[in-house]
């Protein structure tokens, strides 16, 4: 069935492009931003942020005293994971981790926390129900207050990002820059079929915001849930760590080049996406032609929402669907497990012409996040708690309480990135 995104929802968010503009943006993003060569050229930026994640957690463990083998701390893993995701994409777009002065221990400053929190506020509203999606004339009343909240959050995001973009465009105009270093340069230099600049400054700003939004939530949510489930089932956690030790060893940190061989780790991340989707439904689509699916007639113009829960927890497809069980993804003896699911037995990157454009980057970020946490530290339930509380939040599908766990370094001290 052919579908497009629902335009009304995106008018509210005012970031995601639509119609002809979408085609142009899709071409620019595919050719200039997520191409294999571009991702390869920015590998160092991503690795630096994976190191930074390990450094941030290691410093927390060490701050309580003790040598490498005895140091430990209860770590706010949600904060570390969300900041890792924000750092990776910020580093890839703007070639910087910090908007403000930064911190020596690798952790976020006030500015980075505010930036990432504002992105999450926008994302929460992107998926939520509003009446004016179905009764458009109600939009000006902003009955649910969503528009006001999203505008405020987008202003915070743009206030951090836009001055950097203006400054960079100016540098190119004045000839102060001659080489493309990051994704912002790639957007500025992108050409159309006539060899002219493809994007206006406003379009570049919208694209930078969209890339931040597209990247920051999925890896951190899937890995937060996967880690929580694995800490409650230590035999699964141990198996993943054993795989990393066998593939990578304990004398170097895991790298993106190791990902093809980390099938069990990828199966754990896949299980995170299946069992704990980021939202109950996919982004709203509209059918662009009459269609019949499974005997149901769907007229052109219908809103189409796929239930992520319905798919990922469907007992007709998945045995014991509520159990976190990575083995289910290894049953067919597949030599290379991936995070995509083109048959839509659950939704990770979705599929089709409006499917995710960032599969390679999203996979690299998710697997590196999980693998570095598992390789770098032993993880246990915090003292005085029986197990990790796996309740979902009341108004979204994140964990109700941010994941905190007791971390302890498990590698030789010299492998932890220094301050
Ligand atoms: C694990 C990480 C990620 C997951 C699970 C994910 C998942 C998705 C999903 C489910 C959609 C909607 C597809 C639909 O409605 O059919 C989507 C759209 C999109 N994703 Fe991702 N994504 C991830 C990371 C990224 C990254 C790193 C980028 C950066 C380039 C990205 C760029 C996009 C874009 C631009 C769209 C909109 C496509 C369009 O407008 O046609 N995603 N993603």
UniProtKB/TrEMBL annotation:
Pfam families reported for this sequence: p450
The keyword Hydrolase belongs to this UniProt entry's keyword annotation: no
Residues annotated to bind heme: 356
Keywords: Heme, Iron, Metal-binding, Monooxygenase, Oxidoreductase
GO MF term list: heme binding; iron ion binding; oxidoreductase activity, acting on paired donors, with incorporation or reduction of molecular oxygen, NAD(P)H as one donor, and incorporation of one atom of oxygen
Keyword Mitochondrion belongs to the record: no
UniProt similarity note: Belongs to the cytochrome P450 family.
Protein name in the entry: Cytochrome p450 79a2
């Amino acid at each position: 069935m052919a579908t497009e995104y629902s335009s009304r929802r995106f008018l509210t968010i005012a970031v995601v492009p639509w119609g002809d503009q979408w085609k142009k943006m899709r071409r620019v993003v595919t050719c200039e931003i997520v191409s294999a060569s571009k991702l390869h050229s920015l590998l160092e930026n991503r690795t630096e942020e994976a190191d930074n994640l390990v450094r941030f957690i290691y410093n927390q463990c060490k701050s309580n005293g003790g040598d490498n083998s005895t140091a430990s701390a209860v770590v706010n893993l949600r904060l570390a994971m969300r900041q890792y995701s924000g750092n990776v994409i910020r580093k890839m777009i703007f070639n910087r981790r910090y908007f403000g002065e930064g911190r020596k221990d690798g952790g976020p400053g006030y500015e980075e926390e505010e930036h990432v929190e504002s992105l999450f506020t926008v994302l929460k509203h992107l998926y939520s129900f509003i009446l004016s999606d179905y009764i458009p004339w109600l939009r000006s009343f902003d009955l649910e207050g969503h528009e006001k909240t999203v505008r405020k959050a987008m202003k915070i995001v743009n206030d951090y990002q836009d001055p950097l973009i203006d400054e960079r465009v100016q540098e190119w105009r004045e000839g102060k820059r001659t080489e493309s270093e990051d994704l912002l340069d790639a957007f500025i230099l992108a050409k159309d079929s006539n060899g002219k600049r493809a994007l206006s400054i406003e379009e570049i700003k919208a694209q930078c915001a969209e890339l931040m939004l597209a990247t920051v939530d999925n890896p951190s949510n899937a890995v937060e849930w996967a880690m929580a489930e694995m800490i409650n089932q230590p035999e699964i956690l141990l198996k993943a760590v054993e795989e990393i030790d066998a593939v990578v060893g304990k004398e170097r940190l895991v790298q993106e080049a190791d990902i093809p061989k980390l099938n069990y780790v990828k199966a754990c991340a896949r299980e995170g996406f299946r069992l704990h989707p980021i939202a109950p439904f996919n982004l709203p689509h509209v059918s662009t032609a009459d269609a019949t699916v499974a005997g149901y007639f769907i007229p052109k113009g219908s809103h189409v929402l796929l239930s992520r829960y319905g798919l990922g927890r469907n007992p007709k497809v998945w045995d014991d669907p509520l159990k976190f069980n990575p083995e289910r993804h290894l049953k067919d003896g597949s030599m290379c497990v991936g995070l995509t699911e083109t048959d839509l037995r659950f939704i990770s990157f979705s599929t089709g012409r409006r499917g995710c454009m960032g599969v390679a980057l999203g996979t690299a970020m998710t697997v590196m996040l999980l693998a570095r946490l598992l390789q770098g530290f032993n993880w246990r339930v915090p003292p005085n708690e029986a197990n990790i509380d796996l309740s979902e939040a009341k108004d979204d599908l994140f964990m109700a309480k941010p994941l905190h766990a007791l971390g302890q370094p498990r590698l030789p001290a010299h492998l932890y990135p220094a301050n």
